[in-house]
Design brief:
- A hairpin with a 2-residue loop joins strand 3 and strand 4.
- The protein contains four helices and seven strands; from the N terminus they run βαββββαβαβα.
- By secondary structure, it is of the alpha/beta class.
- Strands 2, 3, 4, 5 and 6 form a five-stranded mixed beta sheet that branches. A two-stranded parallel ribbon has the order 1-7.
Length: about 120
Amino acid sequence: MNSEKKDKTPAKRYYRKRVHLLNLIEKIKLWPSRKGILHGIRSIERLGDQARVTTHCNKAFLINNSKNSRAARWLRNKLFIGVCSQCGVPEWKLEKYNSTRFKRHQGSLLLKDQKEGADSEKS
C-alpha cells in the first residue's frame, strides 16, 4: 500500500519575514545552535519576554524574544550545517521546513493573541 502512495512534496507555507522568535520556534519546533547544528525542540516555557527551551537531546537554555537575532535570521535563511543525531529530527520535518517560505508582505504573522481577540469581539 505504501508503494501506491506517491512521494508528495510538502505544501509551501508562507510566514512573515519579521516575526517574533518565540512565535516562530513554537510553530516549527527547530533550533539552530551556534555551531550550525539543527536541534528538535521538546518544550518551550515562556517567561515573559524570554523563554526556556529544552531540546530532545536534553539541552536547556534561555532565549530572548527578538525579530533579528542570530537564531531568527538562521531559521529564516535556513542556515545550518547538519542535524543533531541525538535529537532525531525526522526527514519529513526537514522537508516541511525546507518548503517553508518567508516573505515580507505575505504570510501568517503567527499571532495567537490576534485570533483570540477577534473571536471574543464576535461574541
